[in-house]
Input
Amino acid sequence: MRPDTRARVKAAVAGLGYRPNLSARSLAGSRSFLIGLCFDNPNPAYVSDAQIGAIGRCRESGYHLLVEPFDALGADPASVLEPMIFNVRVDGVILTPPVSDHPAVLAMLDASRTPYVRVSPERDRTHGPSVYMDDHRAAYDMTVYLLGLGHKRIGFVRGHPDHGVSPRRYDGFAAAMADHGCAVDPDLVRQGYFTFQSGFSAAESLLAQAARPTAVFAASDDMALGVMSVAARMGLTIPADLSVAGFDDNPAAKVVWPQLTTVRQPIAEMAAAAAELLISGEAKTALEAGQPLSRMLDFEIILRQSCGPVKASPSGQ
Amino acid sequence: MRPDTRARVKAAVAGLGYRPNLSARSLAGSRSFLIGLCFDNPNPAYVSDAQIGAIGRCRESGYHLLVEPFDALGADPASVLEPMIFNVRVDGVILTPPVSDHPAVLAMLDASRTPYVRVSPERDRTHGPSVYMDDHRAAYDMTVYLLGLGHKRIGFVRGHPDHGVSPRRYDGFAAAMADHGCAVDPDLVRQGYFTFQSGFSAAESLLAQAARPTAVFAASDDMALGVMSVAARMGLTIPADLSVAGFDDNPAAKVVWPQLTTVRQPIAEMAAAAAELLISGEAKTALEAGQPLSRMLDFEIILRQSCGPVKASPSGQ
DNA sequence: TTGTAAGCGTTATCAA
DNA sequence: TTGATAACGCTTACAA
Output
């Protein structure tokens, strides 16, 4: 169109305070300018970060974010998703763990041809677009750091089995141990569920052993905090008697003393990247073409005060 | 209509998998079935609880929740609100502190005749519908509990000055002190901002004094955690050397050792009540009639292990 | 109680 | 480049 026409229209828009009606645009244009964010994560800080990240990208393009907690209210996946897909007809859905791996959710999304992006999904990374970080390498690097401090008997608290990242973090830990000639002692590995409570329970049995570990690496900060709590009650000083490392970089990691050495997950960045793939249409294109699409973002090892050199003569070895 | 007609229609709806299109309903019915939730709160647990509460009520009536963090991304109120009000045209908005008291936000909402509900607003409770708890009384009760343990030199860390609850909590504290013949010592009161960091700083100066308090009551759990952290670094044992009480009942309150004695705020319930007022139309009616409307919900004092009887011969008195 | 028709405020298509 | 016109899928008011 001609520049002066454009200017005249712009002036009119501003002058009359014209505001396009979203509902009308949606109805006529068959796009809702709405993106759904599904989660079922007990960690409010994770959810909050994801929202911030996604919304930041949404605002740039006039999109809005619809939040859908999954299990928080005892709702089953279908009853949450159906309205969002078939009534609201969101333009795309961002799935955070563990929803990223929920088979029924993925199936419903595929069937309805609703574009989606999986954040930190499990193995099947080819099933739909995804954004993630290298959890394996992060765990590997942290373990190498611990080994570098002289630790050999390193305990590990695994993440929730429903989360795709859990096996990757454990494998990274195990790989680093193997590469440095330290076999992973099965007695020093415990199952956790990403919660403080589960870390607490894991540590109780982990640290009660005669030959207890000199360091514990937990697959989440909340669990690491549970470990620290048990250590404190046992009279162990951190890091002198026990080194503790976490994973996430929760705000809580800075609230304890000593502050927690951990891995920073780029949560907001991953969510923003997911929104980007949805808004740009890349996710839709990839999905329709059945082609893989993913973005990997960088993590960061955050060294604080909860890890130190192993004592001269620890209990074991 | 006749029951059999109703049944026939229902069967058809189910059989054909009919899904009313939200955009079309919105356009024709001039209601969006969308509710906005505005917040600007550094505490993810608070935000998360509020979302859970609001969404729970929304789902019952086929509504969806649009989240709008305020300052988190450096956005100014108007640029966040305008699209939500004029483009999306949400049916109502829920304002959590400190947005509940933001003059520009309130003005824009009033001008656009968008129904809203303020959660825990400041003084001007007649300005629009609101839901709240009795912060004054909660602080009063907690202070009485502390006084009952024999504490007389009680420190207080105030909440963020922009939050309406802050003066109410302080006043409740001061009232209880006065009622029990203990003057509030200005040297034992510090300004905080609801964050761990601010509680930490407040405690540093509070506890460095020769005549330090035997108990500290912080207007939020995060600040109380900051106080506990300082105490730990100073070698003070809680609650033997210092009692600490918080306010909120964050998940974090259970993660520290000893666990924090605090006030449980009914955050999810308040958000649910706000959604209720919006969905039922009560908020709209009250707003249009210029009539007051508010709901008060119950708090709860949660006694855990961070408070104990005052030592036989404390530093002061 | 049921059926019919007229919008709702856009986008998209097609002529001009 | 511009203007006119038909959907889009509902709600609502009114007629049957």
In short: Residues 135-264 of chain A form a domain with the Rossmann fold fold (CATH 3.40.50.2300). Chain A has two domains: 3-133+266-298, 135-264. The radius of gyration of chain A is 23 Å. The longest helix of chain A spans residues 44-60.
